[in-house]
Design goal:
By secondary structure, the chain is mostly helical. The protein has one domain. The chain is 71% helix and 0% strand. The protein has six helices and no strands. The mean pLDDT is 90.
Length: 78
């Protein structure tokens, strides 16, 4: 993930209220602590979790943003 993408994802995380963070974590079937590691600290999620986060954030954070190494081809397919 590039530095600008990491910053953008981190900004999205910081803009969320605690309730929104809990809601996204629940929808993504993970914990708020793990979600923080991924969105604020840059930890790489697995492919399934990247998809779950994309769905939980309604596309605001895409799987391509989280794992361009796995999903770069989806950018060109769209």
């Amino acid at each position: 993930m590039s530095e600008s993408q990491r910053k953008s994802i981190k900004q999205i995380w910081q803009s969320m209220s605690p309730e929104q963070r809990d809601e996204v974590a629940a929808k993504a079937e993970t914990t708020t602590a793990y979600l923080r590691q991924v969105l604020a600290c840059g930890r790489k999620p697995g492919a399934l979790m990247a998809r779950n986060i994309e769905m939980a954030t309604e596309g605001e954070i895409s799987r391509q943003m989280l794992r361009p190494d796995l999903f770069a081809d989806l950018v060109h397919a769209a």
